[in-house]
Amino acid sequence: MSHATGERPAAEDGTSLAAVLRSWTPAPDAGLLQLLDGADDWAIHPETASLLDFLIHVRRPRSVLEFGAGRSSLVIARALAGIGGGQLTSIEHQPDFARASWQRITQFPSVDATLVPSRLALRLSRCGVMHTFIDTQSELRDRGPFELIFIDAPPGQLGRDATLFTASPYLAPGAIALLDDAARQAEKTALSRWRRGLRTTTVLHSDHVGRGVSVVEVPSPGAARFSLRTFLGTMHDRLTNQ
Q: What is the sign, positive or negative, of the torsion defined by CA atoms of 22, 24, 26, 27?
């Protein structure tokens, strides 16, 4: 059941997401630790995995979008299986590095999981010049609308601004996004740009959970609004090789 605004409620009783998140603790359960056992330093942090698992169980999304595949894909698939199943669409520019994890996703037969190989390239849009996953529109259109997005790519030096701008037309009303590595300045800049262009609201931010996390709500799908500050900021990023 949706609110009058068309947004998806945070929980079945309509409790706000911010209130629900106050009950979350960052300790991962034994099942999550088993999924993450033996992971390299690039894998999702256990505390971030715990938050991602919690969000899926609270929001019960039918379709999840992920930028940056790997162990996090297993975390998402396990959580979706725990709520009865769903769709997972993962976009990855280095799919060979995610292959081992994706070979294990078959253990969750109730999850319709698709790995979408994509290239990263600089693209000019109304939002500026950003490193963007390209040639993904057909998959996003066919597998959306997405109710939850996990963002752990592109690599930090390239900037993650474009991810939510790219996904926005294919989101469900009131979708939420979890941004990893949110303690870094570049990710904080991305959060500011999303707030200007997509009217996002930050409902949780911590520099101390995992490598930093931020959870934002996107009130309505659609193309981003033009922001001269964002546009010029991305130009500055490119000129300074950020």
A: positive
What is d(CA 80, CA 63) in angstroms, rounded to the nearest whole number?
A: 9
237: nearest Cα among 171, 168, 189: 189
Domains of the chain (ranges, CATH numbers)? 17-239 (3.40.50.150)
Q: What is the mean pLDDT of residues 203-219?
A: 97
What pLDDT, on the 0 to 100 scale, is given for residue 61? 98
- Tokens encoding 56: 């899926």
Under DSSP, the state recorded for 226 is P
Instruction: Determine the pLDDT at residue 14.
Output: 54
Beta bridge partners of 179: 151, 214
3-state secondary structure of 204: strand
Encoded amino acid at 15, one letter: T
Closest to 123 measured CA to CA, from 229, 234, 218: 234
pLDDT of residue 242: 55
- Report the distance separating Cα 219 and Cα 208, nearest Å: 26
Polymer length in residues for the chain? 242
Residue 150 DSSP symbol: E
Separation CA 134–CA 176 (nearest Å): 22
- Model pLDDT, residue 41: 84
Bridging pattern class, strands 63-67 and 86-92: parallel
pLDDT tens-digit profile of 154-177?
Answer: 998 899 999 999 999 999 999 999
